[in-house]
Design brief:
This protein is an alpha/beta fold and about 230 residues long. It is about 20% helix and about 30% strand. The longest helix has 17 residues.
Length: about 230
Amino acid sequence: MDLEKHPAAPAPEPAPEGAAPATAAPTGLRASDADRDRIAQILGDALAEGRLTAEEHSDRLDTLYAVKTVGELEVLVRDLPAPGGVHAPSAYAAPATSPGGPAETIVAVCSSSARKGRWRPGAHTRAISVMGDINIDLTEAVFEQQVTEINVTCVLGNVEVLVPENVTLRGYGSGVLGNFEVRGEGRGESDPHAPVVIVRGFALLGNIEARPKPGARLVDLARKLRKRLDG
Protein backbone atom coordinates (compact mmCIF):
# COMPACT_ATOMS: atom_id res chain seq x y z
CA MET A 1 0.00 0.00 0.00
CA ASP A 2 1.49 3.31 -1.08
CA LEU A 3 1.24 5.77 1.82
CA GLU A 4 3.28 8.48 0.13
CA LYS A 5 1.35 11.71 -0.13
CA HIS A 6 0.84 13.14 -3.60
CA PRO A 7 -0.19 16.73 -4.32
CA ALA A 8 -3.74 17.08 -5.53
CA ALA A 9 -4.18 17.90 -9.21
CA PRO A 10 -4.91 21.60 -9.74
CA ALA A 11 -8.52 22.41 -10.51
CA PRO A 12 -9.13 23.57 -14.09
CA GLU A 13 -9.25 27.31 -14.48
CA PRO A 14 -12.84 28.46 -15.11
CA ALA A 15 -13.57 29.96 -18.51
CA PRO A 16 -14.16 33.72 -18.66
CA GLU A 17 -17.79 34.68 -18.11
CA GLY A 18 -19.72 34.86 -21.38
CA ALA A 19 -16.98 33.19 -23.43
CA ALA A 20 -17.75 30.38 -25.85
CA PRO A 21 -17.46 27.03 -24.04
CA ALA A 22 -14.65 24.76 -25.11
CA THR A 23 -15.62 21.81 -27.22
CA ALA A 24 -15.70 18.39 -25.63
CA ALA A 25 -13.58 17.02 -28.44
CA PRO A 26 -9.80 16.68 -27.85
CA THR A 27 -8.03 19.85 -28.93
CA GLY A 28 -5.59 17.88 -31.07
CA LEU A 29 -8.41 16.26 -33.06
CA ARG A 30 -8.53 17.13 -36.76
CA ALA A 31 -11.25 19.71 -37.44
CA SER A 32 -14.30 18.69 -39.46
CA ASP A 33 -16.49 20.80 -41.74
CA ALA A 34 -19.07 20.97 -38.95
CA ASP A 35 -16.41 22.31 -36.56
CA ARG A 36 -15.49 25.05 -39.02
CA ASP A 37 -19.16 25.92 -39.62
CA ARG A 38 -19.70 26.35 -35.88
CA ILE A 39 -16.73 28.69 -35.51
CA ALA A 40 -17.68 30.62 -38.66
CA GLN A 41 -21.15 31.21 -37.21
CA ILE A 42 -19.69 32.62 -33.97
CA LEU A 43 -17.39 34.92 -35.94
CA GLY A 44 -20.26 36.07 -38.14
CA ASP A 45 -22.42 36.88 -35.11
CA ALA A 46 -19.52 38.79 -33.53
CA LEU A 47 -19.09 40.87 -36.69
CA ALA A 48 -22.81 41.68 -36.86
CA GLU A 49 -22.81 42.74 -33.19
CA GLY A 50 -19.74 44.96 -33.55
CA ARG A 51 -17.52 42.78 -31.35
CA LEU A 52 -15.12 42.33 -34.26
CA THR A 53 -14.09 44.85 -36.89
CA ALA A 54 -14.29 43.90 -40.56
CA GLU A 55 -10.48 43.51 -40.63
CA GLU A 56 -10.45 41.30 -37.52
CA HIS A 57 -13.25 39.16 -38.92
CA SER A 58 -11.42 38.80 -42.23
CA ASP A 59 -8.16 37.79 -40.50
CA ARG A 60 -9.86 35.20 -38.31
CA LEU A 61 -11.87 33.82 -41.22
CA ASP A 62 -8.68 33.33 -43.23
CA THR A 63 -7.13 31.52 -40.28
CA LEU A 64 -10.28 29.41 -39.86
CA TYR A 65 -9.72 27.67 -43.21
CA ALA A 66 -5.96 27.37 -42.75
CA VAL A 67 -5.68 25.63 -39.36
CA LYS A 68 -6.06 21.88 -38.95
CA THR A 69 -7.16 21.03 -35.40
CA VAL A 70 -10.13 21.69 -33.12
CA GLY A 71 -7.86 23.38 -30.58
CA GLU A 72 -6.63 25.89 -33.15
CA LEU A 73 -10.24 26.70 -34.08
CA GLU A 74 -11.24 27.30 -30.46
CA VAL A 75 -8.49 29.91 -30.10
CA LEU A 76 -10.29 32.05 -32.70
CA VAL A 77 -13.42 32.43 -30.52
CA ARG A 78 -11.90 32.30 -27.05
CA ASP A 79 -12.77 35.97 -26.43
CA LEU A 80 -16.27 35.82 -27.97
CA PRO A 81 -19.66 34.83 -26.47
CA ALA A 82 -21.19 31.46 -27.18
CA PRO A 83 -23.89 31.23 -29.88
CA GLY A 84 -27.50 31.24 -28.82
CA GLY A 85 -27.41 34.43 -26.76
CA VAL A 86 -29.14 37.69 -27.57
CA HIS A 87 -27.80 38.93 -30.87
CA ALA A 88 -28.42 42.11 -32.77
CA PRO A 89 -30.41 41.38 -35.96
CA SER A 90 -28.39 41.56 -39.13
CA ALA A 91 -29.50 44.10 -41.69
CA TYR A 92 -29.32 41.41 -44.35
CA ALA A 93 -30.89 38.51 -42.53
CA ALA A 94 -34.28 37.05 -43.13
CA PRO A 95 -35.46 34.34 -40.69
CA ALA A 96 -32.36 32.22 -40.30
CA THR A 97 -32.08 28.61 -41.31
CA SER A 98 -29.83 26.06 -39.74
CA PRO A 99 -26.20 26.41 -40.92
CA GLY A 100 -25.92 22.65 -40.86
CA GLY A 101 -28.71 22.08 -43.38
CA PRO A 102 -28.26 19.93 -46.47
CA ALA A 103 -26.07 21.31 -49.24
CA GLU A 104 -27.60 22.15 -52.59
CA THR A 105 -25.85 20.46 -55.51
CA ILE A 106 -25.60 22.02 -58.95
CA VAL A 107 -24.41 19.65 -61.70
CA ALA A 108 -23.58 20.27 -65.35
CA VAL A 109 -22.32 17.31 -67.40
CA CYS A 110 -21.93 18.21 -71.08
CA SER A 111 -24.62 20.81 -70.43
CA SER A 112 -25.21 24.11 -68.63
CA SER A 113 -26.82 25.01 -65.32
CA ALA A 114 -27.49 28.31 -63.55
CA ARG A 115 -28.77 29.79 -60.30
CA LYS A 116 -29.67 33.45 -60.57
CA GLY A 117 -32.30 36.04 -59.80
CA ARG A 118 -34.17 36.15 -56.49
CA TRP A 119 -33.13 32.88 -54.82
CA ARG A 120 -32.04 31.74 -51.36
CA PRO A 121 -28.62 30.06 -51.32
CA GLY A 122 -28.00 27.70 -48.43
CA ALA A 123 -24.97 27.82 -46.19
CA HIS A 124 -23.35 25.20 -48.44
CA THR A 125 -23.62 24.83 -52.20
CA ARG A 126 -21.76 22.20 -54.20
CA ALA A 127 -21.10 22.77 -57.91
CA ILE A 128 -19.83 19.99 -60.19
CA SER A 129 -18.99 20.74 -63.81
CA VAL A 130 -17.77 18.06 -66.21
CA MET A 131 -17.44 19.50 -69.72
CA GLY A 132 -20.26 21.86 -68.78
CA ASP A 133 -20.95 25.45 -67.78
CA ILE A 134 -22.29 26.59 -64.39
CA ASN A 135 -23.27 30.15 -63.52
CA ILE A 136 -23.97 31.00 -59.86
CA ASP A 137 -25.24 34.57 -59.64
CA LEU A 138 -25.65 35.86 -56.08
CA THR A 139 -26.19 39.52 -56.98
CA GLU A 140 -29.94 39.33 -56.25
CA ALA A 141 -29.86 36.44 -53.79
CA VAL A 142 -31.43 36.56 -50.32
CA PHE A 143 -28.77 35.50 -47.83
CA GLU A 144 -30.12 33.78 -44.71
CA GLN A 145 -26.76 33.27 -43.02
CA GLN A 146 -23.61 35.30 -42.46
CA VAL A 147 -21.24 32.86 -44.21
CA THR A 148 -22.07 31.14 -47.50
CA GLU A 149 -19.65 28.53 -48.82
CA ILE A 150 -19.51 27.25 -52.40
CA ASN A 151 -17.44 24.14 -53.13
CA VAL A 152 -16.60 23.68 -56.80
CA THR A 153 -15.18 20.75 -58.76
CA CYS A 154 -14.54 21.56 -62.41
CA VAL A 155 -13.21 19.15 -65.06
CA LEU A 156 -12.96 20.42 -68.64
CA GLY A 157 -15.67 22.92 -67.83
CA ASN A 158 -16.34 26.44 -66.67
CA VAL A 159 -17.83 27.73 -63.41
CA GLU A 160 -18.53 31.41 -62.77
CA VAL A 161 -19.63 32.89 -59.43
CA LEU A 162 -20.90 36.47 -59.29
CA VAL A 163 -21.45 38.33 -56.01
CA PRO A 164 -22.62 41.83 -55.03
CA GLU A 165 -19.71 44.24 -55.02
CA ASN A 166 -19.99 45.02 -51.30
CA VAL A 167 -19.83 41.49 -49.85
CA THR A 168 -16.65 39.96 -48.48
CA LEU A 169 -15.33 37.44 -51.00
CA ARG A 170 -12.75 34.77 -50.11
CA GLY A 171 -11.20 32.04 -52.26
CA TYR A 172 -9.29 28.84 -51.47
CA GLY A 173 -8.46 26.56 -54.38
CA SER A 174 -6.11 25.46 -57.13
CA GLY A 175 -5.97 24.33 -60.72
CA VAL A 176 -4.08 21.65 -62.65
CA LEU A 177 -3.72 22.69 -66.28
CA GLY A 178 -6.66 24.91 -65.42
CA ASN A 179 -7.54 28.14 -63.66
CA PHE A 180 -8.86 29.01 -60.20
CA GLU A 181 -9.29 32.76 -59.77
CA VAL A 182 -11.09 34.84 -57.15
CA ARG A 183 -11.09 38.58 -57.84
CA GLY A 184 -11.98 41.34 -55.44
CA GLU A 185 -10.53 39.78 -52.26
CA GLY A 186 -9.47 42.23 -49.56
CA ARG A 187 -11.28 45.23 -51.03
CA GLY A 188 -11.51 47.99 -48.46
CA GLU A 189 -14.99 49.08 -49.55
CA SER A 190 -16.67 45.80 -48.56
CA ASP A 191 -19.58 46.35 -46.18
CA PRO A 192 -18.55 44.91 -42.77
CA HIS A 193 -22.15 43.82 -42.11
CA ALA A 194 -22.68 42.13 -45.48
CA PRO A 195 -22.47 38.36 -45.87
CA VAL A 196 -19.20 36.54 -46.51
CA VAL A 197 -18.97 34.32 -49.60
CA ILE A 198 -16.25 31.66 -49.59
CA VAL A 199 -15.42 29.84 -52.83
CA ARG A 200 -13.36 26.67 -52.50
CA GLY A 201 -12.54 24.64 -55.56
CA PHE A 202 -10.35 22.53 -57.81
CA ALA A 203 -10.10 22.91 -61.59
CA LEU A 204 -8.67 20.21 -63.84
CA LEU A 205 -8.35 21.44 -67.43
CA GLY A 206 -11.14 23.83 -66.55
CA ASN A 207 -11.87 27.31 -65.27
CA ILE A 208 -13.29 28.53 -61.95
CA GLU A 209 -13.79 32.27 -61.57
CA ALA A 210 -15.44 34.26 -58.77
CA ARG A 211 -15.77 38.04 -58.87
CA PRO A 212 -17.94 40.94 -57.74
CA LYS A 213 -20.39 42.36 -60.28
CA PRO A 214 -19.94 46.15 -60.63
CA GLY A 215 -23.04 48.11 -59.74
CA ALA A 216 -24.73 45.27 -57.83
CA ARG A 217 -24.88 46.15 -54.13
CA LEU A 218 -26.60 44.09 -51.48
CA VAL A 219 -27.55 47.15 -49.43
CA ASP A 220 -30.33 48.02 -51.89
CA LEU A 221 -31.95 44.64 -51.35
CA ALA A 222 -31.54 44.96 -47.59
CA ARG A 223 -33.45 48.25 -47.54
CA LYS A 224 -36.31 46.71 -49.50
CA LEU A 225 -36.40 43.77 -47.08
CA ARG A 226 -36.52 46.04 -44.03
CA LYS A 227 -39.42 48.05 -45.54
CA ARG A 228 -41.32 44.83 -46.24
CA LEU A 229 -40.80 43.56 -42.68
CA ASP A 230 -41.84 46.90 -41.20
CA GLY A 231 -45.06 46.68 -43.16
